[in-house]
Amino acid sequence: MIYFLCLILFCVGLYAVVTKKNLIKIIIGIGIAEYAVNLFLILIGYRMHGRAPVLADDQVVKNIVDPLPQALVLTSIVIGLAVTALMVAVAIRLYEKYGTFDITQIRKLKG
């Protein structure tokens, strides 16, 4: 069920990217889709009543949480922050040049 909610959140972000004409709304849609993918990766590694994968020599633990998705999500958050900052910088430069965030008008104003 919760995986389906991740899919819905991703579809909301994808809807914003595909249908909106404002650059800021498109950037927010990309962020929402990115958070949905991060949430999905975290849910893949989740275990109910799981324990940390830190073991002593004589311990046997059966319900260990997978640390790999957590590491992937941390890396994804850092890369997503850099990409979002780049998209905002490009949007600001486009606004300075064309005076609008509307992509249909930017396409008309080639030059």
Descriptive overview:
The structure is a single chain. This protein has helices spanning about 1-20, 25-45, 70-100, 105-110. By secondary structure, it is mainly alpha-helical. The chain has a single domain, classed as Helix Hairpins. Helix 2 runs antiparallel to helix 3. The longest helix has about 30 residues, at about 70-100. It is elongated, with a radius of gyration of 20 Å. The N and C termini lie far apart (about 50 Å). The model has no long low-confidence stretch (mean pLDDT about 90).
Summarize the structure.
The chain has 111 residues and is mainly alpha-helical.
The rough form would be described as elongated
Low-confidence stretches: none
Distance between the termini: 50 Å
Output the CATH topology: Helix Hairpins
Q: From the alpha-carbon coordinates, what is the Rg to the nearest angstrom?
A: 20 Å
Order of helices and strands: HHHH
Structural class: mainly alpha
Q: How many domains would you count in the coordinates?
A: 1
CATH architecture: Orthogonal Bundle
Largest sheet: none
The fraction of residues assigned to DSSP E strands is under 5%
- Give the CATH class: Mainly Alpha
Q: Give the helix proportion (percent range).
A: over 70%
Count of helical regions: 4
